[in-house]
Amino acid sequence: MKLIVKFNLVFLLIFALGLTIAAWVSRDLLERNARDEVLQNARFMMESALASRTYTSTQVGPLLATQMKYEFRPQSVPAYAATEQLNDVRKKFADYSYKEATLNPTNPRDRTVDWEADVVNAFRNDLKLPEIIGERDAPLGRALYLARPIKITDPGCLSCHTTPEATPVSVVKRYGPNGGYGWKMNEIIGAQIVSVPMAVPMSMANQAHRTMIGSLVAVFVLLMVLLNVLLWFTFLRPVRRLSRMADAVSMGNLDVEEVRVRGSDEVAALAGSFNRMRISLVKALKMLEEE
Length: 291
Prior knowledge:
Layout: H1 3-68, H2 78-89, E1 97-102, H3 114-125, E2 132-138, E3 141-151, H4 169-175, E4 188-197, H5 199-250, H6 266-290
Antiparallel strand pairs: 1-4, 2-3, 3-4
Helix pairs in contact: 1-2, 1-5, 5-6
């Protein structure tokens, strides 16, 4: 096997190993960055919902308190206001969602589905759990969800959620007597759940990964060509000329042309040694002939 072939095989092996490690590390890093970006969007949506709830309970609710005695206004309910606000966001971003998923809700649209019930029960089983982050398959692709518990800490919330008899007539008239009752103080009754799509950030991460790997391969090919050219002109070509000269001398051709290699490196030193050896051999043969 020729030396240049051995060199290229070793170079290919080293590059393949390095590319494999780089591909694995970069993919993991890009995917984690993409997931962090999605999670940041989810946290922003969650904080927007909390801000809407706070605004409704502190500013809108008191203004509608008198009307609530005669006619129920859902706009005064923080959960309703937050849900409506983020439902408007979904008109432009359909794969984003916010829900105050409740095991026993007053409004039927807030009732938990299977996976949401699992999230709520996880909070009920571990009262110190501040939030849950997970992934699920949504209708429009993979989605990341962020959930936080809904806990009854304000006694005022129970005015509409103990029994139908104790609840304002306007509320019972709107939602009926069958849902949203029996709540207790410090009970976790549901969870705020934000879902954010992962398709676009992950697609961008995959595209960046492919671009990076393609760039590495292009750089490797260019580097390999340059190294082969450099190896040929600085080492292999002079060594081949020296090899041909040595073969000619060994066959008795002492008039072979000297190999001149410019520079002061090892190859140039080797060429000089071969040339001196040829000259010494010619002189020795001439001395033998004169005798």
